[in-house]
Design brief:
The protein has 420 residues and is mainly α. The chain has 21 helices and no strands. Among the domains are: 114 residues; 89 residues, Alpha Horseshoe (Serine Threonine Protein Phosphatase 5, Tetratricopeptide repeat), CATH 1.25.40. 41% of the residues are buried.
């Protein structure tokens, strides 16, 4: 399985979206629920004085935030024998609010469920009460019940908050398949409507896919995280998981390293040296020289135990680049096949001569017969992006069909977005 950076989100506890906001909503709704029944208890003949006096005491204590004492008064009201259906209903409302205030969410959820099932609850309030029951059961960590009531509510009324709750409830139960399914629906819906998917939801989707060893879903979710919430950690994870799915070859090693260098992903001294050596072997000393210079400028090279070796390699790249650059025009004249045109184009690009690189590459693609036309088209997009032709570059990246090269193209699309 792919190894992620130390600060990777893989396997991390996912943020709980419900918390203070839910408590505020319960408190607000709960106080209203308490005030209305008490007023009724003083005037409604269906609430007897034995029950009413305890509820009035509970209300006064609750107003002073003495919630345990208020709950004790409610229990006295509940102990009164021969209570009417309405009195039982009012008591359950008090219990919902006061248990939530004292942090006893299991008792609050049970009381809220009794309110929902009471014949005294008006039909117009049943949907809202169903949502409250779902949220309280979530707080009580009774996730199956939370999911059940949330889905009952969603069957009649769309609600993003409860969709989030369901996603998190599945995740908390280690039901990663359903967590990923619900989370992906939320993310896709936000994207489809032109919005921005929640970072926490994308984290759940990624973590769920990762725990199921679903590398492709993990990669696609990281693409969203980098696009909407770019960070070094997300980029590191995305590059690592992409690299794990690529064919093992020098060509793809060079390509993924190009991405790392452009995206600002962590690139240690050994990687600079390896990339430079691979480029020299490929006949691109100009790019090797530029890579090494980038390492020296970043003070990653030339400061440690490998300073002597790195300096020698820089000198070699410089010497070969000087000779190579002088011979490029002659190489272009001698090139007769699409593959040869592509090779010369790479040489021109390594010295920043992107117009010539673009012209030769387009000529090669038009001629056909290339061994890996999608990789060549990826390079064409890179040249155009470096030449300030972002829209044209995007079109080339999007046109890539080969699965492995398309994974690289997806990274370059993100790089292009960040440069636009």
């Amino acid at each position: 399985m792919t190894q992620f950076s130390r600060k990777s989100i893989a396997g991390k506890p996912v943020h709980r979206v419900f918390g203070a906001a839910l408590m505020f909503r319960i408190a607000f709704a709960g106080l209203a629920a308490v005030l209305v029944p008490v007023a009724a208890a003083q005037a409604d003949p269906s609430v007897g004085p034995d029950v009413g006096k305890h509820l009035k005491n509970a209300q006064d204590l609750a107003d002073g935030k003495k919630f345990p004492a208020a709950l004790a008064e409610v229990r006295k009201a509940d102990a009164v024998s021969g209570k009417s259906s309405y009195e039982v209903f009012v008591i359950a409302q008090f219990e919902t609010f006061l248990n939530a205030q004292t942090g006893n969410y299991a008792a609050a959820a049970d009381a809220a469920e009794r309110v929902l099932k009471s014949p005294e609850l008006p039909d117009a309030q049943k949907a809202k009460q169903t949502k409250t029951v779902a949220e309280l059961y979530y707080q009580a960590k009774a996730y199956p019940k939370a999911i059940s009531y949330a889905q009952a509510y969603l069957a009649k009324t769309p609600d993003d908050e409860l969709s989030v709750l369901i996603t998190q409830a599945y995740y908390q139960q280690d039901d990663y398949a359903n967590a990923a399914l619900w989370g992906r629906k939320l993310a896709d819906q936000a994207i489809k409507t032109g919005g921005k998917p929640s970072e926490q939801i994308l984290q759940i989707v990624f973590s769920s896919a990762y725990k199921q060893k679903d590398v492709e879903s993990s990669r696609k979710t990281l693409l969203d995280l980098v696009h909407y919430y770019p960070s070094a950690n997300y980029w590191n994870d995305l590059v690592n998981i992409t690299q794990s799915s690529l064919p093992r070859s020098d060509a793809y090693e060079i390509e993924i390293n190009r991405v790392k260098l452009r995206a600002g992903v962590s690139f240690p001294a050994d990687d600079y040296v390896d990339q430079a050596q691979l480029l020299i072997q490929k006949g691109l000393p100009g790019e090797a020289k530029a890579v090494l210079q980038q390492g020296f400028d970043a003070k990653v090279l030339g400061t440690g135990a490998g300073k002597s070796r790195e300096t020698r390699l820089q000198a070699l790249a410089g010497t070969q680049a000087a000779q190579d650059q002088k011979s490029l025009a002659k190489s272009e004249t001698q090139a007769k096949s699409p593959e040869e045109w592509v090779a010369v184009a790479e040489g021109y690009a390594s010295y920043g001569q992107y117009a010539k690189a673009i012209a030769l590459t387009e000529k090669a693609l038009a001629a056909g017969g290339l061994k890996n036309p999608d990789l060549v088209r990826l390079h064409l997009g890179q040249y155009k992006l470096a030449d300030g032709k972002g829209a044209d570059a995007r079109a080339d990246f999007a046109a890539v069909k080969d699965p492995a090269v398309a994974r690289l193209a997806a990274l370059w699309l993100l790089i292009g977005d960040s440069k636009s």
